[in-house]
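In response to reviewer comment 3 from the previous cycle, which asked for concrete evidence that the modeling workflow produces usable outputs, we include below a single protein chain processed end to end. The sequence was submitted unchanged, and the resulting structure tokens are shown without manual editing.
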Amino acid sequence: MKYGLVLEGGGMRGLFSMGILDVWMEQGDIAVDGAVGVSAGAAFGCNFKSRQIGRGIRYNVKYADNWRYKGFRSLLLTGDIFGAEFCYDTLPNELDVFDAKTFAENPMEFYAVATDLEKGTAVYKRLRDGGAADMQWIRASASMPVVSRPVCIGRRKLLDGGMADSIPLAFMERRGYDRNIVILTQPQGYVKEPNSMLPLIRVSLHKYPKAVETMANRHEMYNRETAYVAQREAEGAAFVIRPDAPLAISHLEKSEAELMRVYNHGREIGERTLAAVRAFLSENENA
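The workflow returned the following structure tokens.
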């Protein structure tokens, strides 16, 4: 029996997931065999493998108002609304050092999801050492269309993993993870609507017609995936954690109070569900 963890993205909604993961790390007895993160799920979730309690919320609060981290000034000057050099080099290597050694030594598998622009399909990359190459895959996973440059890795041109696979539960099951905890950043009953920015996306990604088609159909993909998550939850193969209500936070949120609100809601839910998570992870042992 292999236990997995699926982390949805959603920009600063990912701080909800980080609150849950910090509670788990503080408890010290909650572990899975593998995890997959999409977009913010990869950018924040990597701290779970590196065992760095509080890092995700700490740097988001400290640098929330720094244009090199995020904002329209970064977009105008660098081409990325989240500054690539600051986020994936300066921050993890100098300002709030990412523990690559612990990341590499932790046996838990960790995958990041990106979208291949030329094919319009998801790419799943196992991250092994937390080094510069892994950081580029996290960057690709979290690079939102329209406001980010494509990330070139090898022959691939990549953007946000949520374009092609927003909730990769099926991927984890294909990898042999029989039972999965799924952390969503939207509340129960959420239904994604067609993207109102599709005309702008068509212009921005005009060189990549398959990626445009993927984005045009994204709401259908997302709603199929949430239905599948609900099915696997009903069957007992998945344990799903969601916020109680819409988190309603901007991708570019600068308010410490708002960032902490979302993070603390994750902590609240994490503490509330501790016993149920433990039971889910031990069910096979007790069978």
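The chain has 13 helices and eight strands. We consider this sufficient to address the reviewer's concern, and the full set will be provided in the supplementary archive.
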